[in-house]
Write a structure and sequence with these properties.
Layout: E1 3-8, H1 16-24, E2 28-33, E3 57-60, H2 73-88, E4 93-96, H3 98-106, E5 110-126, E6 135-146, E7 152-156, E8 161-166, E9 169-172, H4 180-197, H5 202-233
Parallel strand pairs: 1-2, 1-3, 4-9
Antiparallel strand pairs: 5-6, 5-7, 7-8, 8-9
Length: 238
């Protein structure tokens, strides 16, 4: 049975419908939590990274920290190195939000504070519908990706790069794993203040997520399907 490793950078990042679809596709789930709950306020933990080449797919998820935050350097540098080794071993990687940013850093791209944040359900324009569907995807980020030089841009929004592909790597800035549960975990208790400070409404995030959650689950399943079909079916999928 093929194995997928979900990298949860904190304790409130469930993989939701992304994990569901990997299971549907016959994968055995494995999870690694980088920063445990009792270290959330002091995330500079030491971690011994597993070899990513021991798995069939790697899925680095989101994070409340930015890839350039010095406070996480104790473990982030190791993650970047393993992403490079996975690439050398042709192990597919689906990077989500922070995971996409880590992929960009690993392969020569850049990440910086964006001029404008994106938060909530935002319109994404696909440049390749065979990989990423256009439409509303959940966003929660303050940074912007400059893709690796050899990457193919697959989707954008009015404010940021939304998806890129490079060899067997796919990075998406949005959150296809978004559910009502995930949004509630992010809002309570830490995120509510951050959302309000950004000029957004926690109530609107909750209400719109309730409206779009089921549609998003199906679209997330489709994203996993297209990712797996692409990276297993072609040498240069993008």
């Amino acid at each position: 049975m093929p194995r997928v490793l979900f990298i949860q950078h904190d304790h409130v990042s469930p993989a939701g419908p992304i994990a569901e679809r990997f299971v549907d596709r016959g994968f055995h789930e494995h999870y690694l939590t980088v920063v445990p709950e009792d270290r959330f306020s002091h995330p500079g933990v030491e971690i011994e990274w597993p070899s990513f080449s021991d798995y069939d797919v790697i899925v680095p998820l989101g994070s409340p920290w930015s890839v350039y935050d010095e406070i996480i350097a104790s473990w982030f540098d190791g993650e970047v190195e393993e992403l490079r080794r996975a690439d050398e071993a042709q192990v597919p990687v689906l990077g989500i939000c922070f995971g996409a940013q880590a992929l960009a850093i690993a392969h020569g791209g850049q990440v910086a504070r964006a001029h404008h944040h994106e938060m909530g359900w935002c319109e994404v324009e696909s440049h390749n519908e065979d990989v990423v569907a256009s439409g509303l995807w959940f966003q929660y980020h303050f940074d912007a990706i400059a893709p690796p030089p050899e990457a193919t841009v697959l989707a954008t929004s009015m404010r940021a790069l939304q998806a890129f592909g490079l060899r067997r790597n796919l990075g998406v800035q949005f959150h296809p794993e978004a559910t009502e549960q995930l949004v509630e975990l992010w809002l309570d208790p830490i995120g509510t203040e951050e959302v309000e400070r950004a000029g957004e409404s926690p109530r609107v995030l909750r209400e719109t997520t309730k409206l779009f959650a089921e549609e998003n689950r199906l679209r997330a399943h489709g994203l996993v399907d297209r990712f797996l079909d692409k990276v297993t079916g072609e040498k240069s999928p993008w």
